[in-house]
Write a structure and sequence with these properties.
heterotrimer, A alpha/beta, B mainly beta, C alpha+beta, B: mainly beta, Folate-binding fold, 6 strands, 10% helix, globular, C: alpha+beta, Ubiquitin-like (UB roll), FAD/NAD(P)-binding domain, 20 helices, nucleotide-binding (chain C)
Chain lengths: 405, 92, 964
């Protein structure tokens, strides 16, 4: 075991059999499902809850992400939601009594073109007024904050500056899930693994439970939190969602002595990288263009990502990739999540987080639990309902179209 | 990296192609007659099946033709390829 | 040949090393010697070094365990002009002057520049054979003889695989090495066969793509060779792939099983036979299966004392037992090793009989300095798993073997769980034949099958953990399962005690299998230990974790290949680029293009240069290279109708010889691109696009044309790079043009705004000249074939010299257009902005249908108080508002004490204006057109300034200047 890192608790969770009925059944024991169960219990006193997981707990995107936590989103609605998450991240290690290696080491979003600069400065100004810590760094300041970044002016796309969110950082994803699961379990929530939802029990237009590989389970409310598989589940009640499931890949290096002090992201050259506590470099890039449930992506994405990484960090050249993997991310048309009620009574959805799901984990759980418990969206997720696709009030986090004369 | 059978050029690496989403989603005949919900369905809602999916690709770095693939999203196996406007599979 | 004194553990003869080449190397600061053909590990063992750096967390002494990529302990940092971290010493080929340092599971990145080259090759073949051992060679021969295009790859420096470690094996009644040599020669002679050694298949991807990492120069030294790539990544697109990837031996899990001196039995055999190295002088062999008997016999043959061979099976095959006993080795059956002594290297092994359940009692110590262990074999199925093949647990092999094989993949030999030579050869031949046949190649001649005489081994005993020492499994803190991660049986029990049941959870909790070796020795052992701890019947019920690429670590640099520096993304330049460089332009990256940003004179600031350039355009004449604008030639009888359907405004009735500005929106109604469209002929238009939007617009047009309106008779072609465009701008532009285009009547009456003319320039170059203006000034855009671009630019400069013509870049262009309130898509829009939002309702046809029109009726899109594009004048005329600054209503607190500050919008464009004499800005402001005259707050870092909302047109509102 790692002796430099904190020990895991001796006790995490029970492995109960499903009961015939629950007040709430959450489908998907990823970070969001677990956080939802935790806050249902903690904030709303609802503990007769099952979280159903077809595989192993937190084995989907929770196990596959690059662990970046930040709240410096462009639009007010997004920034508010992610900032709520960040404030929760700041108290959760103590609240959950679990050191999940939350490290507020700062996230840099590099700008490589004048268009990037405009977008970054815009985000900084909006963030500061929105209560999100944000700074604009000059190229020289970038070099000071992260000395290994290549700030040479003859790079193919030189670094022209960066936004910095000092409170942003990383956490150890698995440990976050286990921490939430442990507390949810302690509240009496049943975490049921190896239990796949195969259909829904209906009473007229209402959903009253789920069919699973471990039998029928009645439920007052059914809350989907199944990321890339949400459309498939929703389709079983005839609900079509504006979601496409795409592969998103990531990779790690072997363990290396500390060299990278923060998190660096670059949308322009498409790479993001941090160095985890153990010492491995953790990297991600963009999604594959086509939808797929294969949990693997196309290798040229990895190759382009490595080329981009070496543009920014030439000294990574002789590091080695020891493992690559893919997750299935649920992408919405405006790259913002869908959290709320559905046209089907007693069925709720939390999906569309795309590449942003991990950092939102506690806030997603918080507002989803609120929506489940009260039957109404929390003010923070009210803008993120399905209705926006009809009204046109999208929250378009694709950012600027990156087109310029 | 997918190997995509362009119906005009034959098998080529995925990097030569652009992706165009679900195929056979026609632009509504009379958009002005649609409700907001119907228009939203056209704009934003697409199938997202685990299994065979009919989708459009364009051979951007080749013949620039759009065409239709049927691809199994659970394994990426390509089950059929059609030239746009035809329904007979093509085996280049 | 005599043993060199420097290699006390080197056998006097034998091995596949070149004793004529003595190589000197340094390890942890001490000099040693070895031979060509050694690995760093074999040379260290030959020199008597078997202790490497202590373990990562518990700092326990560790030694070399394996002889290949599965090595968990002996990781080194290789010195050189650029150091390389975390290489297993067992895979580093020795070269003269090699220098390495032992690592405790963590490497260091060298900040010095890596000047080595890394490249890639993209190849196709009918049959790819992975693994050059007996099965792979047989497969390659069978496939190659059929005429199929075959590639055989092997990670070692020479072909042979397990046969390189063998001593007495025979094929076709001759020593196995003879057969390897003849197979290699035959394959080399086949014209369609390519052999790659030092080449590791690291990943199997979709549709038959296999990535192979070839190490081309690493064995020659650490200094990059000029012009030769150090490593090469092969992208092999194979119709069929034969996996003959062999098997990795499993260690045994017992108390203190991590001492230096405990080695895998087959690795011991490899060191003795292939490298002529004795890893010890007195060896105990412990096994659960037949394979280690050969190790015992070979050790004896090499002169090593082997007092005892311990077999966990109560009744091992009598013939094997007899053979070993005949060599003078005691055989203890139904027994195992239960512990070790050492200081810290091994001095004795404790041996005890096992009861039926695997418990042990009555241990006796056997002095030894080498413990060769075999816990069974794991078929190497990483690539098989990556390709989505599924595995099943085989009880008689005590191993996971292929179950459902993926399309296009065949397994053969030890990878299939076949552990005897005759079986490997047969399966290899069959697999090669089958793969070739599936790829369409059959060999009419009956295959000449290589043959061996051995029989399949007897069943192995599954022995996952061995009791020993005091206490129960949860206290087994020195029963190591994953040496690289320092993880033990006790750790597994702790994870299970916490409630974990899934192997994936236990892996993450204990970190087993997450090291640089990805658990090649430990992962399956862990599964066995988990099965025992959970009390389930078989490891098959626990299942494996997922196999992910790469099979062995691949350097970032190799994956990046040549896409570094300026090759990271293609650089696009115009035909006039060299002039811009020669005249000191600063450049802006726009898409892949390099565009002149501004042209500073010596000691001139950007601000001063831009003001000067702006002044020239407004007061005299200025010139800009506009060649990067996208240009799409649209032809066909239905071209007008086509454009009508895509652009928000109408083009069908545009006159030939005229231009019109148009806006493209996506189906959601949001502005996507814009540009001027010329009508060249009744059935021909030329549409210009933004510089970085060109490809997307063409793809967008083609999509609608081909998938939605195939009945329209229209063809689109990109002509961006066929044309060079020189914009001559300013009141004196007509005078300049008069010199250049003498045949043209340039008067405002004869050549109206938004018309174009075809003409020949004074030097005879055919040109298309358009009276379009992105500045509001009189302006002419000269379009010529791109190869004339530079000459025309030079002619413009010459003709303009009399008027002090001034070149200007994108920054001045931005200022000039902003003074006129012209938008830049992507700067004043962000994908959420409609033409109406921009105050450009005039460009949206009320009469015709176009893509996305319906979207404007949606409740949110039809809101009258959306964000509108407006002008902003800072109260302080010298205050340059930052682009991106947010706007807040008057009287609203701009601190966040009581929550987020409500924001009305942001500054999209902001400049100093030479002609206005003050700064100005464009902004998107909520309900902005109803706020004209309002004073807004602009909170900046540490201070707040104020600005007033205005119309977005600041200069020449009446448009009087465009005619000159």
């Amino acid at each position: 075991m790692s002796h430099e890192l904190p020990e895991h608790p001796d006790w995490l969770w029970r492995n109960p059999d499903p009961k015939p009925s629950y007040d709430v059944v959450v489908v998907g024991a990823g970070g969001h499902g677990l956080a939802t169960a935790y806050y249902l219990a903690k904030n709303h006193g609802i503990t007769n809850v099952a979280v159903l997981e077809r595989g192993w707990l937190a084995g989907g995107n929770m196990a596959r992400n690059t662990t970046i936590i930040r709240s410096n989103y462009l639009w007010d609605e997004s920034a508010a939601l992610y900032e709520h998450a960040l404030k929760l991240w700041e108290v959760l290690p103590e609240e959950l009594e679990y050191d999940f290696l939350f490290s507020q080491r700062g996230v840099l979003n590099l700008a490589h073109t004048l268009q990037d600069v405009r977008e970054g400065v815009r985000r900084v100004h909006a963030n500061r007024l929105g209560g999100v810590d944000a700074e604009w760094l000059s190229t020289e300041d970038v070099k000071k904050f992260c000395p290994i970044v290549n700030t040479s002016s003859d790079a193919r796309y030189p670094v022209l500056g960066a936004t910095l969110q000092p409170r942003a950082g990383i956490a150890k994803h698995d440990h976050v899930a286990w921490a939430l699961a442990r507390k949810a379990d302690a509240y009496g929530v049943d975490l049921i693994q190896g239990c796949e939802v195969t259909g829904f029990l209906r009473d007229g237009d209402r959903v009253v439970g789920v069919e699973t590989t471990r039998g029928r389970i009645n439920a007052g409310k059914v809350a989907l939190a199944a990321a890339g598989h949400t459309s498939t589940l929703a389709a079983r009640v005839g609900l079509r969602l504006p979601i496409q499931s795409h592969p998103l890949q990531a990779l790690v290096s072997e363990l290396l002595e500390p060299v990278h002090p923060c998190v660096v992201m670059s949308n322009h050259v498409h790479v993001y990288v941090s160095q985890a506590h153990k010492g491995e470099l953790v990297m991600g890039a963009g999604i594959d263009a086509y939808p797929s449930y294969t949990r693997r992506g196309s290798v040229q994405i990895i190759e382009a990502q490595m080329a981009a990484a070496l543009e920014l960090f030439p000294l990574f050249g002789r590091a080695h990739v020891i493992r690559t993997w893919g997750g299935v991310v649920d992408v919405s048309p405006d790259a913002s999540p869908v959290v709320g009620l559905t046209p089907v009574e007693n069925l709720l959805v939390n999906c569309g987080w795309g590449t942003g799901g991990f950092k939102a984990t506690p806030a997603a759980g918080w507002v989803y639990a609120h929506t489940i418990a009260t039957g109404q969206p929390h003010p923070l997720n009210a803008p993120f309902g399905l209705e926006r696709f009809t009204t046109g009030a999208l929250i378009d986090e694709h950012g600027a179209a990156a087109v310029a004369h | 990296m997918l190997l995509i059978p362009c119906p005009w050029c034959g098998d080529r690496d995925e990097t030569e192609f652009g992706y165009g989403g679900q195929a056979h989603v026609p632009y509504p005949e009379a958009p002005e007659t649609l409700t907001d919900a119907e228009w939203a369905e056209y704009l934003f809602v697409r199938d997202n099946p685990e299994g065979p999916f009919t989708e459009q690709w364009v051979h951007t770095a080749g013949c620039r033709r759009w065409f239709t693939l049927v691809r199994d999203t659970t394994c990426n196996d390509i089950l059929a390829v059609h030239r746009t406007g035809t329904t007979n599979p093509v085996h280049p | 040949m005599t043993e060199t004194p420097a290699n006390p553990h080197r056998l006097a003869r034998g091995g596949r090393i070149d004793r004529s080449a003595s190589l000197s190397f340094t390890f942890d600061g001490t000099r040693y010697h070895g031979h060509r053909g050694d690995t760093l590990a074999s040379a260290l063992l030959a020199s008597g070094v078997r202790t490497v750096a202590p373990s990562i967390y518990r700092r326990r002494a560790r030694g070399i365990v394996a002889a290949g990529v599965e090595e968990p302990n002996a990781l080194v940092q290789l010195d050189g002009p650029c150091q390389e971290p975390m290489l297993p010493a067992t895979t580093v080929e020795l070269f003269d002057g090699l220098s390495a340092r032992s690592l405790s599971g963590k490497g260091r990145l060298d900040p010095r520049e890596d000047t080595a080259l890394y490249d890639k090759k993209y190849v196709h073949c009918d049959v790819l054979v992975i693994g050059g051992g007996p099965a792979g060679l047989a497969a390659a021969l069978a496939a190659g003889r059929s005429g199929a295009r075959v590639i055989l790859v092997d990670e070692q420096n020479e072909l042979g695989g397990s046969l390189l470690s063998s001593r007495a094996e025979r094929i076709d009644h001759a020593p196995a090495s003879d057969w390897v040599a003849s197979a290699r020669d035959e394959l080399t002679a086949l014209p369609e066969v390519r052999l790659l050694t030092r080449a590791t298949a690291v990943g199997v991807h979709d549709h038959g793509l296999v990535l192979v990492a070839e190490r081309r120069t690493d064995h020659l030294g650490s200094t990059p060779l000029p012009g030769v790539s150090r490593q090469r990544l092969w992208h092999v697109r194979a119709r069929q792939t034969v996996l003959a990837t062999g098997a990795h031996e499993r260690p045994l899990v017992f108390a203190d099983n991590d001492r230096p001196g405990v080695m895998l039995a087959h690795a011991v055999r490899t060191y003795v036979n292939r490298y002529a190295v004795l890893p010890g002088r007195r060896a105990v062999v412990v096994t659960t299966n037949d394979s280690a008997y050969a190790t015992a016999i070979d050790l004896v043959a090499a002169g090593v004392q082997v007092p005892v061979l311990v077999d966990a099976r109560p009744e091992p095959p009598p013939a094997l037992v007899a053979q070993v006993r005949a060599a003078g080795v005691e055989v203890r059956t139904g027994s195992a090793v239960v512990g070790t002594d050492g200081d810290p290297s091994l001095t004795a092994a404790w041996i005890a009989p096992l009861d039926r359940r695997g418990g042990a009692a009555d241990a006796t110590a056997v002095p030894c300095d080498l413990l060769a262990v075999s816990g069974g074999w794991n078929p190497v199925l990483h690539l098989f798993g990556q390709a989505q093949g599924t595995l099943r647990y085989d009880e008689s092999l005590a191993a996971f073997v292929p179950e459902r094989r993926p399309k296009g993949l065949v397994t053969a030999g030890a990878a299939n769980g076949t552990c005897h030579l005759a079986g490997c050869l047969d399966e290899g031949t069959a697999a090669g034949t089958e793969a070739a046949a599936r790829a369409g190649f059959t060999d009419d001649a009956p295959p000449a099958r290589p043959r061996a005489q051995d029989a399949p081994p007897a069943p192995a005993r599954a022995l996952w953990t061995i009791p020993g020492g005091a206490g129960e499994p949860p206290t087994w803190h020195t029963h190591f399962v994953d040496l690289q991660r320092d993880a033990t049986v006790a750790d597994i029990h702790r994870a299970i005690g916490a409630g974990m049941r899934s192997v994936e959870h236990i892996k993450r909790y204990t970190t087993i299998g997450t090291g640089q070796d990805q658990g090649k020795t430990g992962a399956v052992v862990a599964i066995g230990a988990i099965a025992e701890a959970l009390g389930v019947g078989s490891p098959g019920e626990v299942g494996t974790t997922t196999f992910r690429p790469p099979y062995t670590p691949v350097s970032f640099a190799l994956l990046a290949g040549r896409d570094r520096g300026h090759l990271n993304d293609p650089v696009r330049v115009t035909p006039i680029h060299d002039w811009h460089v020669a005249h000191g332009a600063a450049f802006e990256d726009v898409g892949q293009w390099k565009r002149p940003w501004y042209y500073p004179r010596p000691d001139e600031t950007m601000e001063a240069a831009v003001l000067r350039e702006c002044r020239a355009a407004r007061e005299a004449v200025a010139v800009m290279d506009a060649s990067t604008l996208g240009k799409i030639d649209i032809q066909g009888p239905d071209a007008g109708e086509f454009l009508n359907r895509l652009y928000t405004n109408a083009f069908a009735k545009l006159k030939v010889g005229s231009c019109r500005y148009g806006v493209l929106c996506k189906a959601d109604g949001m502005v996507f691109d814009d540009g001027v469209v010329m009508r060249l002929a009744p059935d021909r238009y030329l549409a210009t696009t933004t510089t970085s939007g060109a490809a997307a617009v063409l793809e967008w047009m083609e999509m609608w044309l081909q998938t939605e309106w195939p009945d329209l008779r229209v063809h689109c072609t990109s002509v961006t790079e066929q044309w060079a465009t020189v914009a001559v701008v300013g009141p004196k532009s007509r005078a300049v043009l008069a010199h250049l285009a003498p045949d043209l009547d340039l008067s405002a009456e004869a050549f109206a705004f938004m018309d174009f003319r075809e003409t020949r320039l004074a030097d005879g170059v055919p040109a298309r000249i358009a009276r379009v203006s992105f500045s509001g000034e009189l302006a002419f855009e000269i379009n010529v074939a791109s190869w004339h671009g530079r000459a025309v630019w030079d002619a413009v400069m010459a003709a303009g010299a009399a008027y002090d013509i001034t070149p200007y870049g994108t920054e001045t262009m931005h200022v000039l257009r902003a003074e006129k309130g012209f938008i830049i898509v992507g700067q004043d829009t962000d994908g959420t902005v409609t033409p109406e939002d921009l105050g450009m309702g005039w460009v949206v046809s009320k009469r015709k249908e176009f893509v996305g029109k319906r979207s404007y009726r949606r409740p949110d899109t039809a809101r009258p108080d959306r964000k509108h594009l407006v002008g902003l004048l800072p109260d302080d005329p010298t205050e340059l508002l930052p682009e991106g600054a947010q706007l807040v209503a008057d009287g609203v607190p701009t601190t966040t004490e009581s929550g987020p500050v409500p924001m009305l919008g942001h500054v999209t464009s902001s400049y100093r204006s030479a002609v206005l004499g003050h700064t100005f800005a464009l902004a998107l402001v909520k309900d902005g057109r109803n706020r004209l005259g309002q004073s807004l707050q602009v909170p900046l870092v540490g201070r707040t300034v104020r600005a007033t909302v205005t119309e977005p047109v600041f200069y020449d509102k009446e448009g009087t200047r465009r005619d000159g």
